[in-house]
Design a protein that fits this description.
The complex is a heterodimer of chains A (about 100) and B (about 525).
Chain A lengths: L2 H23 L2 H7 L9 H46 L5 H8 L1
Chain B lengths: L4 H32 L2 H8 L14 H10 L7 E5 L8 E6 L5 E5 L14 H12 L7 H23 L16 H15 L1 H14 L1 H4 L2 H6 L4 H9 L17 H16 L7 E5 L7 E5 L13 E5 L5 E5 L3 H14 L5 H27 L9 H30 L5 E2 L2 E2 H23 L3 H24 L3 H6 L3 H25 L12 H9 L1
Antiparallel strand pairs in B: 1-2, 1-4, 2-3, 4-5, 5-6, 6-7, 8-9
Helix pairs in contact in B: 1-4, 1-5, 1-13, 1-14, 2-4, 5-7, 6-13, 7-12, 13-14, 14-15, 14-16, 16-18
The chains are: A mainly alpha (about 100), B alpha+beta (about 525).
Chain lengths: ~100, ~525
């Protein structure tokens, strides 16, 4: 078991899922489900993009450009679906993230 | 460019009718393709004798050469040798042409023949189903799949034009709304988030068979000379046989070592030869081709091959693909995903599942948009039966295929067919039953077939544990992660099927006709 590769992948997931979550929360219809303010903080969207692009950097460090070009878009897709399902079924799970961005 | 209402309507029309016409074929291609990602692992599940971890780097000579010495080889016999790998632990020895024809699988450490369960497995059933639908006459299957791939690209582009709120609804999924709305949400979600995937795969699929669809590229560039084309583009070349008998090569391992050293130096990373071919095996001018088909750390495939004279070991040809070939190989390699990345394989597996859900939810949405409370046109009923049979029916048939693999005795035969074909009979039999069931049960067939899938998907791993003793803990203990993963995915599929069945059970029936259909309904209601 290649622990280093597993670690990089875990880090990429840990960056892209919250990244996608923040991009979702930057949209008012999703923010209203978990946030206390009327509209989402201005920081949500740039922060979401930063985390998502950081995940790309991690993918490139892990596997090089050729494989990262295939892995990263799929990772983003999987993260987006995860966030969509979370918002649909257990939106409360995103409340801590919403609090963190408000503050 | 402004998207006018007329343009939007025509995009919708094209998307709808292309989706209905080819949705069934597309689902089959996507579903079988998803399974094919792990075809080597599914093979291990279906042939328990191959659930072994062997020394894949053991020398080939003590295993292969004694076998070949026993056989009658002449100037036209070719021998194909598949070196074992982690995912495919046995040495494959295939002899064809000339007098003999053999297919042997050998333990790489002992050289003993391993008798595998007679099954087509995933590699010879799911995989060819994916690219040719098993329709061989005139190569029609390849053409139908090619047409579906082109349509998929058109569907993706028209879909982008239709879906006005592509960014606003990027994360939107409303499962508790009416089935029509939640199906459309699901269709949009699975389509948009994996958009690069949905473009890459049909495109790369078409490129893989490009010369089948456009043979003129070869014909015009090489004046129809297939031999010259093959030699220039792939390095494949069968030298002239002398007609005189000759001995087998002294050492295949020596040739493999020389080829690997050559490629390692060329690429700057370790290279491992995957396939060998002994051409004109019994001849004095026999040649050995060593291939580097599936590099471990590169997406691109077919990175080169070397041809050696079997007797003297002289290098007859040293083929390295040209840069343009490398680009094409990268695109094709993205589709085949033979690169050694479990992360990529699992992500593409999920992508394929997303694509299958996309197609199924699109078809379900279209059906729901046409439900009439009082009057259901016969056309809709026929299309619904065909749709259900193609979608849930095919998934059920797949589960039934795997159940049959565990239930059929090793020496099963009947109807003049051997065990492998009997499993295929079960697949198509279950599929036909699904179509009939859908025709008879109408709307209820969706959830009933989901329950059937759940039952079969639960039965398969249970039968695996009963017949082989490889329950997930035992499998992991023996290092057989593939087997444990397949059983786990089957169990998760059963749970998913139950959730889908329950969702379809409680789907609120629309109390009013869908707005677009109202004018058509009024005259019927007035009767």
């Amino acid at each position: 078991m290649d622990w280093l590769a597993a670690g990089w992948l875990a880090l990429a997931v840990a960056l892209s899922v919250p990244g996608m979550a923040l991009l979702a929360l930057s949209q008012t219809q999703h923010w209203r489900k978990v946030g206390t303010t009327r509209s989402s903080p201005r920081a949500a969207r740039p922060l979401g993009w930063s985390l998502t692009l950081a995940a790309l950097a991690v993918c490139i460090l892990r596997d090089g450009m050729s494989l990262a070009a295939l892995i990263w878009p799929m990772l983003v897709a999987a993260s987006a679906v995860t966030v969509a399902l979370t918002l649909a079924f257990v939106p409360g799970a995103l409340r801590p993230l919403a609090r963190a961005v408000e503050g | 460019m402004r998207i006018t209402r007329e343009f939007h309507a025509s995009m919708t029309w094209l998307h709808t009718w292309l989706g209905i016409a080819l949705g069934g074929v597309l689902f089959a291609v996507f579903w079988m393709g998803t399974l094919t990602v792990f075809h080597l692992e599914i093979n291990r599940w279906m042939m328990p004798e191959t659930r072994v971890t062997l020394d894949v780097d053991a020398p080939l000579d003590p295993v292969v050469l004694p076998r070949l010495a026993e056989l009658e080889l002449d100037s036209t016999t070719n021998v194909s040798i598949a070196r074992p790998s982690e995912r495919s632990p046995l040495v494959g020895l295939f002899v064809f042409g000339g007098e003999s024809r053999h297919r042997l699988y050998l333990d790489p450490s002992t050289g003993k023949e391993v008798t595998r369960t007679k099954t087509f497995g995933a590699s010879d059933f799911f995989y060819p189903f994916h690219y040719s639908l098993h329709i061989s006459p005139l190569g029609l299957g390849y053409w139908i799949v090619g047409l579906a791939a082109v349509s998929m690209l058109v569907l993706t582009i028209t879909g982008i034009f239709i879906h006005r709120k592509i960014f606003r609804e990027f994360f939107t999924f409303r499962p508790k709304k009416m089935l029509r709305r939640s199906m459309l949400d699901l269709h949009n979600l699975t389509a948009v988030v994996a958009l690069p995937f949905h473009i890459l795969f049909p495109l790369s699929g078409i490129l893989i068979f490009a010369l089948l669809y456009f043979p003129n590229a070869m014909t015009s560039a090489f004046d129809g000379d297939r031999e010259a084309y093959l030699k220039a583009m792939t390095g494949y070349h069968t030298p002239e046989a002398s007609g005189k008998p000759g001995p087998l090569p002294a050492s295949l391992d020596a040739l493999v070592a020389r080829a690997e050293a050559n490629w390692t130096e060329r690429d700057g990373q370790p290279a491992r030869a995957d396939y060998l071919r002994i051409l004109n095996a019994g001849d004095a001018d026999a040649a050995v081709m060593v291939q580097h088909a599936f590099p471990e750390r590169q997406v691109a495939m077919t990175r080169g091959n070397m041809l050696f004279d079997a007797g003297t070991g002289a290098v007859l040809n040293d083929f390295t693909p040209l840069p343009v070939h490398t680009t094409l190989s990268w695109i094709k390699g993205a589709h085949f995903v033979r690169v050694d990345s479990w992360a990529l394989r699992w992500l593409f597996f999920l992508g394929g599942l997303a694509g299958s859900v996309m197609i199924a939810s699109g078809l379900l949405f279209w059906m729901q948009a046409r439900i009439r409370k009082f009057h259901e046109p016969r056309g809709v009923r026929v299309v619904r039966a065909l749709t259900i049979g193609t979608v849930t029916g095919m998934v059920f048939a797949t589960a039934a295929f795997m159940v049959a693999n565990r239930l059929l005795p090793l020496d099963a035969a009947g109807l003049g067919l051997d065990r492998a074909y009997l499993e295929v009979v079960v697949f198509f039999g279950a599929w036909i039953v699904a179509f009939v069931h859908a025709g008879v049960r109408g709307r209820k067939a969706w959830r009933e077939q989901c329950w059937a899938i759940a039952a079969a998907a639960l039965l398969a791993p249970c039968l695996n544990w009963l017949t082989t003793g490889d329950d997930p803990l035992a499998a992991i203990g023996a290092g057989q992660w593939a087997i444990a993963s397949i059983d786990l995915v089957l169990l998760l599929s059963a749970i998913g099927a139950v959730l889908a069945a329950r969702r379809l059970d409680t789907a609120p029936v629309p109390s009013r006709e869908p707005r677009r259909a109202r004018p058509a309904v009024e005259p019927a209601a007035a009767e």
